[in-house]
Amino acid sequence: MVDLFCLAGSVIAFLGLVFSDLCRLQSFIAMWTFYFSLVQISQSFRQQSDELLLEAGFLCILLAPSKLSDPRSPIEDLALLLMKWLLFRFVFASGSVKLASGCPLWWDLTGLKRHFETMPLPTSYSWYTYQQPDGLHRLSTIYVYLSELVCSWLFFAPNQKVRMFAMWWQVFLHLNIIGSGNYGFLSLIVLTLLLTLVDDRELVRTQVKKEPRKEDKRGALTVKVISISMVIGTWLMFGVGYKNGELAFKLLFNRSQYLNMMQMMLRAAPLLVLSLMVQKFLKIVNKQAGVKTVADGIRKLSENWQLFLPTVAAFAVLFTSIVPHLQLTQSTAISSSILTKPYQGLHNLFVVNQYGQHLIKMRPKRLEIILEYSDELTGPWHEYGFQYKPWSQGGSMPYAWVYFPRFDFKFYDASVSKPHNQKWLYPLVQRLLQNEPTVVKLLDEDNVPSRPPKFIRASLYHFSYTSWFDGNSTTFWTRERVNDYFPAYTLADGFLETKLNDIGIPATASTPEAMNLPLKLLMDGVRNFLGIFEGSLLVLGVLMAAFVMILTQRRN
């Protein structure tokens, strides 16, 4: 059934991407329902990108027209504004928590350099970026602060040129994020949401050369003023200078001053969006036929349930989303149950979520869990290989692109936690001791035992990047063993079976009887065929096929 949900959602998404006529309300409801079901059963393997996708997907339900004859949704303006608000909340939260946490690495502007080494699933690009001079790293950290704390406000600018400036600024940032780390489809969602900043006229090609409009000239001038202000502001606030042949920095504000400014920005953002929502709502009211007054328009709107219900849902999402936005600091957090209870209800459905919490504290060093197997307690011990996460000194750092390696990613979370807090580890070890094929396939199949081992243990290693100047460019990592992560486990003592019983997982993997055997055989055939391809190549191949079909349609 999991395979069926994945396949059905993928087919609907592919057809909607290729054929715009199929981008309708029913398609987005089906995709959201399938994905919500998958996220519900993913449990420990749910990530921030899943919550962002579900929240954006729900807004697509409000945005999409319900009939083929309808070119647009009647509340399109409200839905697009909510998408901008979601984009702002995600970007602003990612930036605001860094300095608000008081983490010394973010305050001395070395956080980004440390991030390149300690991110969950780094790529070779992050190794090369890590080798850059410290001054460039500090400038890059300031660039990230400007991107998330300043540039995000331009999403709501009335002028198209200003919004395009903000869009390309964010595009450059997220292309670097995609290149440096395997975060799956997270940045792809952000890049898609950035399309809400673009006017339709920017997407239409015309052979006629038009004279620049006054609005465009004002926008171009505004962009220049904003750019100059950012440069001057950076120089003043971060004390940029030059000393002993190197760039020097000295922050001219403290944490208390930053928190005061942040509180003002946190409170101002919802008021700004609410005022824009009211303006767009009044436009919807006045557009109705035969409306002479606002009161008359609201009455007619309440009688049209196809317009009334989505409008109510849009305002409900806006008001409840204020709760996680203001929770970024304790002083601005909302305690009233009038908003917190509806928020909890919508958050349980992942319709409204909180973002940025994983960026609060930067890890001072990289710890990796290495799984080892042996037939004797005294050894020799051999290491399991992983497909994407670092595990050996000579290993590569492959690109997963928009494919999300959840299994490898989960070890990053576990490395700073105790084994008993990671319940998925016990069934993992049990299945590896049984040499369960479906679990073994999650690992690097060139570095797994050919038969079931008798013992499995985990060691914790400290990984560090090699230096560009070491003269050994073929190796990305050095590593040093820290201690045991968990002791040697075996099937003989019954410990794992007891642990699995406590969390309600059977000790032996079993396949229940199929309720629909032909459908099950079809799903097994599809999985076996697609399993031939590496995950990132499969996803990129499907996307390339979609783009080729789109280009072919346009040429025809």
Automatic annotation (TrEMBL):
Belongs to the lipase maturation factor family. InterPro entries: LMF, LMF1/2_C, LMF1/2_N. This is Lipase maturation factor. Coiled coil: none annotated. It is a multi-pass membrane protein. It comes from Aedes albopictus (Asian tiger mosquito). Involved in the maturation of specific proteins in the endoplasmic reticulum. Keywords: Endoplasmic reticulum, Glycoprotein, Membrane, Transmembrane, Transmembrane helix. Its main location: endoplasmic reticulum. The chain crosses the membrane at residues 86-107, 139-157, 177-198, 219-238, 258-278, 307-326, 529-551. Residues 351-487 form the Lipase maturation factor 1/2 C-terminal domain. Residues 47-203 form the Lipase maturation factor 1/2 N-terminal domain. Signal peptide: none annotated.
